[in-house]
């Protein structure tokens, strides 16, 4: 008796985020087997908000909406780089944290990638420019020129997703979180206030 062989093609959706307090970029890839396909890319434009806290609110709402729309299996986010301007670093870290929190609350596994790591993965050069990253992504994903975004923050978000795709199945030294509980267990120093610890203890008691 002959049996028909069927090949199982696994699919995975990756959401990439490039944090920002003025323009936040994102890119979505669909992986079929070992082939990436562009689903969407764009930006969250925060320029109309003068208040920093309103920007964070917008980031939370838009990232949550992206997750609900594309239902990503995994999320890749660019880690903030260390600069000389402390206030800018603080605001960027908050923006990244809010985006991560939305993924963690929805139980989407998150991996952080350093900017150097992403540039190396896409172009082979750690000092590559945004334009070089965008150009390489256009070639690799066969994106028509007319569909390339105005803001390079979008291709930076897509680059984070593509970098994550390239790391699939390989040992990684990047920070990865499977959910809110996993994030807290790996970052006990961030849960520093007595009130936060009290809330966490109450949640653990309820689960028992």
By secondary-structure content and strand pairing, the structural class works out as alpha/beta
Under CATH at level 1, the class of the largest domain stands as Alpha Beta
CATH superfamily of the largest domain: Ribonuclease H-like superfamily/Ribonuclease H
CATH overall fold name of the largest domain: Nucleotidyltransferase, domain 5
Percent strand = 15-25%
Helix/strand order, N-terminal first: EEEHEHEHHHEHH
* Helical content class: 40-55%
CATH architecture of the largest domain: 2-Layer Sandwich
Integer tally of domains: 2
- Treating each run of at least 4 consecutive H or I residues as one helix, how many helices? 7
The rough form would be described as: globular
- What is the average per-residue confidence, as pLDDT, rounded to a whole number? 84
Biggest sheet overview: 6 strands, mixed
Biggest sheet, strands in spatial order?
A: 3-2-1-4-5-6
N-to-C terminal Cα separation, in Å?
A: 53 Å
Explain this structure.
Strands 3-2-1-4-5-6 form a six-stranded mixed sheet. The chain is built from seven helices and six strands; from the N terminus they run βββαβαβαααβαα. With 208 residues, the protein is an alpha/beta fold. The model is unreliable at 1-8 and 190-196 (pLDDT under 50). The longest helix is centred in the middle third of the chain and has 20 residues, at 86-105. β2 and β3 form a beta hairpin. α3 crosses α5. The protein is 46% helix and 19% strand. It has two domains: 11-177, Ribonuclease H-like superfamily/Ribonuclease H (Nucleotidyltransferase, domain 5); 180-208, no CATH class.
